[in-house]
Amino acid sequence: MKKPQYHILVCNSYRVAGDAQGACNKKGAAGLLQYISEEAADRGLDVAVSSTACLNVCSQGPAMVIHPNNFWYGGVDSEAAIDEVLDALENDEACAKYLISD
Questions:
Q1: Nearest CA to 63 among 22, 10, 8?
Q2: Domain residue ranges in the chain
Q3: Could you say which architecture CATH assigns to the domain 6-90?
Q4: Which residue in 95, 94, 61 sits closest to 77, CA to CA?
Q5: 40-57 CB burial, b ≥16 within 10 A, e <16
Q6: Contact present, 7 and 66 (Cβ < 8 Å)
Q7: How is the beta sheet containing 71-73 ordered, strand by strand?
Q8: Per the omega criterion (within 30 degrees of 0), is the bond before 68 cis?
Q9: What is the per-residue pLDDT across 37-91, written as a single tens digit (0 to 9) for each?
Q10: Which of 11, 31, 10 is nearest to 21 (CA)?
Q11: Angle CA 95–57–13, to nearest 5
């Protein structure tokens, strides 16, 4: 298997019992997964996109993490926000507007 250059983890608020209950899911994170995958592919970015359990930054959700850069983003609740993050990623940079961790 060829490893992707980037792995984008999108919090979908799943808890131990398997139910999506938290802030990220309620703020529409699940609906952004397909957009992220398609937009990254359209840009030629080599990414894998995964939905995750709770990332424990509920007050800043929807949240996502991009590895291997370890960029933690919050408030990525729209296609416009995702576009800004992917614009920065194309240059292998962080999008300061949505960073929640240095």
A1: 10
A2: 6-90
A3: 3-Layer(aba) Sandwich (3.40)
A4: 61
A5: beeeebebebebbebbeb
A6: yes
A7: 47-53, 6-14, 64-67, 71-73
A8: yes
A9: 999 999 999 999 999 988 989 889 899 999 999 999 999 999 999 999 999 999 9
A10: 11
A11: 110
8 A C-beta contact, residue 102 and residue 95: no
Q: Which two tokens stand for residue 5?
A: 């250059």
H, E, C per residue of the chain: CCCCCEEEEEEEEECCCCCECCHHHHCCHHHHHHHHHHHHHHCCCCEEEEEEECCCCHHHCCCEEEECCCEEECCCCCHHHHHHHHHHHHCCCCCCCCECCC
What pLDDT, in 10s, does the model give residues 21-44? 678 888 888 889 999 999 999 999
Instruction: Please give the Cα distance from 44 to 64 (Å, whole number).
Output: 20
The position carrying tokens 């991009």 is 66
Q: Which two tokens stand for residue 31?
A: 């609906």
